[in-house]
Amino acid sequence: MAVTRLQRKHRKNIARAKAYVKDVSRLIAKPSLKMVDVEAIKKEFAEKKAK
User: Fold this and answer.
1) Would you kindly state where each structural domain of the chain is located, as residue ranges?
2) At 19, which helix (H) or strand (E)?
């Protein structure tokens, strides 16, 4: 019985470690600016500032 419990604990520890690595990599990932229209954003801020 002890062996089964240790294997379960090992699988759980591995799953937690993978989730941690995945969360950290998601948090530090930088969004790509290719999809952002910078000119449209500048125009929007200018319109808000003019009001």
Assistant:
1) 2-50
2) helix 2-28
